[in-house]
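User: Just a sanity check before I run the rest of the batch. Below are the structure tokens for the first item. I only need the designed sequence back.
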């Protein structure tokens, strides 16, 4: 089997945030024409058969920016971002996505599965805009419309910190996903607004109570864009068997996260980790979810990835491992792309 022919659509990457943080003079140019440090750029995606994915707009933690990218701070004496700055950072990342499209005819922002499939035929990189953590939308409800009009079709309402929508999930390893209170009243109202607009609601960074709150509120399939099996790696971010069952019952979707700390049984951040552990999570979750509701959620550019995988061009190794485990070609194609497109259709149509 020629794995070059197997297209890959991925549930989560942080390339837009990396572009925003980049100190390259023209990171958009580097992404399109050269090689930009990190896990993916246009040429490597094309080489890998990576036809598209969910690209996150993400507010990096203030402490991280202060330590590693102090030039991105608006005020060197500040102790946190203001709400206005949070909104600006997310709008700047949206602008980067739009600039990629303006400057390359081989990149497109997609708002439907038909769009994504057209991109595939035309050999364009399909960007589905996602927002990871919705702090930018917590004060000004009109901003949701601005981002929606620009193509945003997926939102993870919570990240690892407290917001007006809920309590952040921030627990040491090992830990159950039950880390405290769930969605706030405002968070629940926000989910309903997303559902009314048929926006994907991503539960990947929710604690367990917020997860079950979401199950109660949402009539649509439940999606965890980049999470793994808690039974194999007891990270609070990973999904219990009961959560996996609820996702299956909703005809939802899970994208497997390649971050070694979310894969390894000991939770260690150690890049010297064989990629078989990704296959172990795949096998385990497929037993619970079935073959329809599982795909990739790499977390490229936001994760510590196994040196064996290295970057987007290493994805063929995962395909080879699936072949070695006797996955059929049909099943491999579903995991690599089809399941994601079907899940998006179930929510967007
Ligand atoms: Zn994440």
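Assistant: Here's the designed sequence for the first item:
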């Amino acid at each position: 089997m020629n794995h070059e022919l197997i297209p890959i659509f991925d549930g989560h990457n942080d390339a837009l945030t990396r572009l925003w943080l980049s100190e390259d003079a023209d990171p958009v140019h580097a992404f399109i024409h050269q090689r930009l440090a990190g896990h993916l750029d246009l040429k490597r995606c094309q080489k890998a058969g990576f036809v598209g994915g969910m690209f996150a707009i993400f507010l990096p933690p203030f402490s991280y920016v202060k330590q590693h990218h102090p030039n991105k701070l608006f005020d060197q004496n500040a102790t946190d971002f203001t709400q206005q700055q949070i909104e600006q950072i997310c709008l700047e990342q949206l602008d980067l996505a739009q600039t990629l499209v303006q400057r390359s005819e081989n990149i497109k922002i997609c708002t439907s599965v038909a769009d994504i499939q057209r991109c595939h035929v035309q050999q364009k990189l399909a960007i589905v805009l996602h927002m990871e953590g919705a702090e930018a939308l917590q004060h000004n409800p009109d901003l949701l419309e601005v981002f929606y009009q620009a193509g945003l079709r997926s939102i993870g309402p919570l990240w690892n910190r407290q917001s007006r929508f809920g309590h952040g999930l921030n627990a040491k390893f090992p830990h159950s996903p039950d880390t405290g209170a769930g969605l706030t009243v405002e968070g629940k109202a926000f989910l309903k607004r997303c559902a009314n607009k048929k926006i994907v609601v991503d539960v990947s960074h929710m604690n367990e109570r917020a997860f079950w709150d979401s199950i109660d509120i949402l009539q649509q399939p439940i999606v965890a864009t980049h999470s793994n099996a808690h039974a194999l790696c007891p990270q609070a971010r990973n999904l219990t068997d009961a959560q996996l069952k609820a996702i299956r019952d909703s005809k939802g979707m899970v994208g497997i996260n390649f971050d070694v700390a979310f894969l390894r049984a000991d939770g260690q951040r150690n890049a010297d980790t064989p990629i078989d552990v990704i296959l172990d999570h795949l096998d385990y979750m497929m037993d619970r979810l079935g073959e329809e509701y599982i795909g990739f959620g790499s977390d490229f550019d936001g994760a510590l990835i196994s040196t064996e995988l290295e970057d987007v061009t290493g994805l063929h190794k995962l395909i080879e491992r699936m072949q070695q485990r006797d996955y059929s070609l049909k099943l491999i194609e579903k995991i690599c792309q089809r399941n994601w497109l079907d899940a998006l259709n179930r929510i967007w149509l």
